[in-house]
């Protein structure tokens, strides 16, 4: 059920320019320049987060995690130590140790830092990473990425680490640790699920019906999130379902981009691309029940997607990509649940603006919204929401003439 659907749309306008790439986004209330380490310039920040005391992110280009205070001073620079490369090696396995060393010296084996998370007020960073696993020998070998959770302090010292069991007997449906990590409740955390072509694999195998998104039976089981218990990652279960537009148009997991937020009573799982929101009772998740109510936040956008028969397309990837313009006319940047409301930050590309929406806790009624003109869309790539006492804060990371700035806005919503 959706109330006030006429207000919950992104209006499409053709031929609207995204604006000059050197323009300034002037809606921010405060901007501070981020310090940089001479040996670790910021190249490609991702997975932005804030715990109220610090802002943190992974820099993909330098394979490091940066932690800044709110004045832009760097407080932590986390990067792989030499022995971390061998996290997946069993004690005494000198052959595996030697093989990884050989592949590392050839520039093949890498330890990759991924998505960080810092609890409110914490001085520690917990993050996902990939460590190399190589089977065989130097003449004939196979390379795998082993997922781990690691916690470090701001001096780059390891506090603890644990492997993540993301392999199961179902080789078609799998979780991925490369997107995000965020605990919820007291004992759970979730990772996105991927299934079938083109999310997994390079070429479409039409004979493998379990991996073929153009086979109707593919959609019999299409969960969105795999939930792990923090006390033992052997225990896991799947929740949610990929968005109805992906099922209707046979798009598989190509555009799936989940995010979640929660409060004491509710868990909100959203697909940021399609705008489909699934609302769970927290107790149902704790009881491992996949029961939810679906709300479409972009009903007009979804209703205007062109209908096409994929059987008429020889190039199946071209068919997939034909939905890109319509789906990214507007999309969700972040969501935030408080005890009373749900806040959704939307990037409206057709109007070059952020739209901050305020819904009731069931997300059935749009209560209010604010519009912020984005003059430089490429610079506005990174933006998140966090609760600041009784207000909602918009936090951005923007690049201006080669330097990165932390930008903030306390909203009146």
Characterize the structure shown.
The structure is a single chain. The chain has 413 residues and is mainly beta. It has two domains: 22-163 and 378-413, no CATH class; 171-337, no CATH class. Helix content is 9%, strand content 41%. Strand 20 (341-348) and strand 21 form a beta hairpin. The longest helix has 12 residues, at 94-105. The two termini are 24 Å apart. The relative contact order is 0.14. Mean pLDDT is 88; it is low at 1-20.
Secondary structure layout plus pairing:
Blueprint: E1 30-33, E2 45-50, E3 54-59, E4 64-69, E5 74-78, H1 94-105, E6 112-117, E7 124-136, E8 141-153, E9 158-163, E10 173-175, E11 183-184, E12 188-195, E13 225-229, E14 232-239, H2 244-248, E15 258-262, E16 266-271, E17 276-281, H3 282-286, E18 293-296, H4 299-303, H5 316-321, H6 324-327, E19 330-337, E20 341-348, E21 353-360, E22 366-373, E23 382-388, E24 391-400, E25 403-410
Task: Offer a concise description of the structure.
Helix content is 9%, strand content 41%. By secondary structure, the protein is mostly beta strands. It has 2 domains: 22-163 and 378-413, no CATH class; 171-337, no CATH class.
Could you name the key traits of this structure?
single chain, 413 residues, mainly beta, five-stranded antiparallel sheet, four-stranded antiparallel sheet, 6 helices, 25 strands, globular, disordered N terminus
Distance between the termini: 24 Å
Helicity range: under 10%
Rg over alpha carbons: 22 Å
Tell me the β content. Answer: 35-45%
Number of domains: 2
Mean pLDDT: 88
Largest sheet: 5 strands, antiparallel
3D shape: globular
List unreliable stretches of 5+ residues.
Answer: 1-20
Number of distinct beta strands: 25
Structural class: mainly beta
Report the total helices: 6
Multimer state: single chain
């Amino acid at each position: 059920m959706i109330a006030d659907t006429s207000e919950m749309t992104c209006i499409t306008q053709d031929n609207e320019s995204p604006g000059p790439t050197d323009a300034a986004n002037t809606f921010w209330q405060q901007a501070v320049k981020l310090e940089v380490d001479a040996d670790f310039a910021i190249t490609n920040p991702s997975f932005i987060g804030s715990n109220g005391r610090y802002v943190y992110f992974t820099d993909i280009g330098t394979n490091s995690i940066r932690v800044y205070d709110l004045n832009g001073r760097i407080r932590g620079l986390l990067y792989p130590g030499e022995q971390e490369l061998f996290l997946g090696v069993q004690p005494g396995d000198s052959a595996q140790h030697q093989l990884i060393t050989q592949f590392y010296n050839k520039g093949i084996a890498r330890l990759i830092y991924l998505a960080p998370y810092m609890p409110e007020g914490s001085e520690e960073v917990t993050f996902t990473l990939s460590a190399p696993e190589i089977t065989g020998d130097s003449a004939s070998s196979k390379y795998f990425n082993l997922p781990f959770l690691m916690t470090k302090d701001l001096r780059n010292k390891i506090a603890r680490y644990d492997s993540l069991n993301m392999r199961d007997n179902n080789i078609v449906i799998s979780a991925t640790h490369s997107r995000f990590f965020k605990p919820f409740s007291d004992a759970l955390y979730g990772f996105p699920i991927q299934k079938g072509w083109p999310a997994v694999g390079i070429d479409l195998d039409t004979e493998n019906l379990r991996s073929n998104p153009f086979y109707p039976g593919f959609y019999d089981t299409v969960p969105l999130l795999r939930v792990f218990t923090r006390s033992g990652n052997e225990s896991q279960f799947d929740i949610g379902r990929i968005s109805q537009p992906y099922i209707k148009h046979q798009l598989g997991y190509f555009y799936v981009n989940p995010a979640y937020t929660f409060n004491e009573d509710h868990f909100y799982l959203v697909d940021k691309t399609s705008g489909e929101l699934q609302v769970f009772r927290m107790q149902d998740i704790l009881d491992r029940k996949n029961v939810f109510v679906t709300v479409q936040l972009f009903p007009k956008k979804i209703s205007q997607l062109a209908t096409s028969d994929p059987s008429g397309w020889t190039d199946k990837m071209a068919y997939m990509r034909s939905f890109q313009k319509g789906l990214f006319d507007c999309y969700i940047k972040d969501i935030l649940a408080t005890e009373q409301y749900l806040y959704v930050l939307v990037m409206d590309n057709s109007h070059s603006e952020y739209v901050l929406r305020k819904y009731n806790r069931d997300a059935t009624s749009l209560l209010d919204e604010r519009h912020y003109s984005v003059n430089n869309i490429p610079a506005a790539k990174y933006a998140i929401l966090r609760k600041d006492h009784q207000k909602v804060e918009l936090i951005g990371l923007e690049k201006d003439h080669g330097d990165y700035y932390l930008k903030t806005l306390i909203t009146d919503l």
